[in-house]
Design a protein that fits this description.
The complex is a heterodimer of chains A (276) and B (312).
Chain A (H helix, E strand, L loop, with lengths): L4 H7 L14 H13 L3 H21 L7 E4 L2 E3 L1 H33 L1 H6 L5 H29 L11 H20 L5 H17 L11 H7 L3 H13 L7 H27 L2
Antiparallel strand pairs in A: 1-2
Chain B lengths: L7 E12 L2 E12 L3 E5 L6 H8 L7 E6 L8 H5 L2 E4 L11 H11 L4 H14 L15 H12 L6 E5 L7 H16 L3 E6 L2 H7 L2 E6 L2 E6 L1 H8 L3 E6 L5 H9 L4 E4 L4 E5 L2 H10 L6 E6 L2 H9 L6
Parallel strand pairs in B: 3-7, 3-8, 5-6, 6-7
Antiparallel strand pairs in B: 1-2, 1-4, 8-9, 10-12, 10-13, 11-12
Helix pairs in contact in B: 3-4, 3-5, 5-6, 8-11
Classes of the chains: A mainly alpha (276), B alpha/beta (312).
């Protein structure tokens, strides 16, 4: 029997772990997104990036004039703009990831049948999940880098440690993209998709982005601390001010758990939707 | 026709698929040989697409055995799909990409090198008669072009088996003939074709061997000519007496032919010489409103086997 190149490539993976769900080619899914992105309108990308910049200008430099210094750690005071900037960076990373992992995924899932096409090849569902989530986190990273450049430009970066905020932003993007895509696989209509926005906006406004959590009563503080964005805000705020402590570990673990859960459920759902 | 065991690309025994209580595929046996063009013929809901998806490892069977190129689709999915080219019932081309990029990225999904794919793209654009449309977005293509692109895309990995689910449904007659011509060329090149259809003319044109399916079960299996020979007479006489009288005269007509089938709008009379039957009808003093003598087709086979027409 003549073996085609495609068969030889697939057979080379026999015996690897997870061979029935993963072919080691998630990068080709990212390549696909890049091809589609090349011909899409840049304006959509630009607006996603612009949002946190507008918040920074309006709240940081506008409202910030009315507010004095804020204490972020015992004896550590910063300007209001410097206080909200890390939160806006975390939100930017979240938004970049969520946009691709929810709405874009929803259309491919329910209307374009793109995933059926992919899964008719020798790819497995984990390739698709990793590739799509990977692309979403690249977008989150792009937004984070662009926003960091702005912060640098307006003098809000005071320590080289702040550069570590970028890998943190990638971690946050990855977590939100993974959970976002997993949640989207359960969505059937536009109404349900809008629920995602209804959750995200208040989370952005109340997760300690614009003021310290200490103004809340204890029970509300506890609730906010269960939500992912607060962990993202707290992580980036500490890192960008160069304040390191063991308190950062739970924040990082929170996102690691989100990534694992998100990948697991996305793969499972794609299998159930298209391969059962 | 090759029948040696080593030539069997797909073998199924007692294959079943249940969705809850609904039996989509009911314990069927079949085998597909290398280089043949094998068709699943049946109405919507007969289980054709379900069988195709089980073969392509995108649906798991409920019970029974199936091997595709000696492998079990249930646990060797990606590997089996590397052997297959899949043309689904509904086009799932990538709307965000151009014609060329659709072919390119599909090759990438299979892990093929850019060099290999780029050479293959030229060949496939030519084959699918889409060279002039190479940079067009998919949404700008006609239905026939989209189908040809879907087929070209399925061929990027040089599959041994090309699976086509209702390949010409929704196409105009001209587009269908172009498509049939392309499929014929593939067959000549030795590609094994697996086709589902509810068009008897398509089955007759394209398939060496056919399996007639109804409600998940096999009703018959043979070559198109063999099925006609086995289940119906050479010719058919179609007569109409008006919907009121069809049933009324049928008893009298029954004696004149080998078999009679009374449909709401017409009566089908099966005989090897249908002209002679028509003469006898006239002699007996009955005057049908219209009459038509034609060769028997797979539609008649299906009607004989199931008591229903294929396309309702």
């Amino acid at each position: 029997m003549i073996t085609s190149a495609a068969v030889a490539i697939a057979e080379a993976r026999i015996g690897r772990r997870g061979e029935s769900v993963y072919s080691g080619r998630a990068r080709t899914i990212i390549e696909r997104s890049y091809l589609a992105f090349r011909s899409s309108t840049w304006i959509v990308v630009a607006t996603g990036f612009l949002e946190p910049v507008l918040y920074l200008v309006s709240f940081g430099f506008g409202v910030g004039k009315l507010i004095g210094k804020i204490e972020v750690a015992p004896g550590h005071f910063v300007s209001y703009a410097a206080f909200i900037a890390p939160a806006l960076l975390a939100t930017s990373a979240m938004n970049g990831a969520i946009y691709d992992a929810t709405w874009n995924v929803f259309f491919k899932l329910r209307f374009d049948r793109v995933y059926q096409g992919m899964l008719a090849t020798s790819l497995g569902p984990l390739d698709v999940a990793l590739g799509e989530i990977g692309w979403a986190l690249l977008r989150g990273m792009l937004y984070a880098i662009a926003f960091m450049s702005i912060l640098g430009g307006v003098g809000l970066i005071t320590t080289p440690w702040a550069l570590l905020a970028i890998p943190c932003a990638v971690l946050i993007s990855f977590g939100f993209a993974a959970v976002g895509m997993a949640v989207t696989t359960y969505m059937k209509s536009f109404e349900q998709m809008n629920l995602i926005n209804i959750v995200l906006l208040p989370m952005f406004l109340f997760s300690g982005s614009f003021y310290p959590l200490s103004i809340y009563p204890g029970w509300l503080q506890a609730f906010i601390k269960v939500l992912p964005l607060w962990h993202g805000v707290a992580l980036i705020r500490s890192v960008s001010l160069g304040i390191f402590s063991a308190a950062l570990i739970p924040h990082i673990l929170y996102f690691v758990v989100m990534i694992i859960f998100g990948l697991y459920f996305t793969t499972r759902r794609l299998t159930l939707l298209f391969m059962r | 026709m090759p029948t040696e065991k080593s030539d069997e690309l797909i073998t199924a025994k007692g294959l079943s698929k249940l969705y809850g209580d609904f039996v989509a595929v009911n314990g069927i046996d079949f085998s597909v040989h290398k280089g043949e063009s094998f068709g699943f013929l049946g109405p919507n809901g007969a289980g054709k697409s379900t069988i195709m998806r089980i073969i392509a490892a995108t649906l798991t069977r409920t019970s029974g055995e199936i091997t595709v190129l000696g492998k079990d689709p249930a646990d060797r999915g990606p590997e089996i799909r590397a052997h297959l080219g899949v043309v689904p019932q509904q086009d799932n081309l990538d709307q965000a990409l151009s014609v060329t990029d659709n072919l390119y990225i599909y090759g990438r999904y299979f892990g093929l090198s850019r060099k290999f794919i780029n050479a293959k793209i030229e060949e496939l654009l030519d084959f699918a008669q889409l060279t002039e449309k190479r940079d067009a977005k998919v949404e700008m293509l006609s239905g026939g072009m989209k189908r040809r692109l879907t087929i070209a895309r399925a061929l990027i990995s040089e599959p041994e088996i090309l699976m086509l689910d209702e390949p010409t449904t929704g196409l105009d007659p001209q587009a269908r003939h172009i498509l049939w011509d392309r499929l014929f060329r593939l067959k000549e090149q030795g590609v094994t074709l697996l086709i589902t259809t509810h068009y008897m003319d398509e089955a007759e044109q394209l398939c060496d061997r056919l399996m007639v399916l109804d409600k998940g079960s096999i009703m018959a299996e043979d070559s198109p000519a063999g099925l006609i020979k086995k289940y119906v007479t050479k010719e058919v006489l179609e007569v109409r007496f008006g919907s009121e009288r069809n049933a009324e005269v049928s008893e009298q007509l029954g004696a004149l032919c080998a078999r009679i089938e009374v449909l709401p709008d017409r009566i089908l009379m099966y005989a090897d010489d249908a002209e002679k039957v028509l003469e006898e009808i006239h002699k007996s003093g009955l005057h049908p409103v219209t009459s038509l003598v034609r060769r028997s087709s797979l539609e008649d086979v299906f009607l004989r086997l199931t008591g229903r027409t294929l396309v309702e």
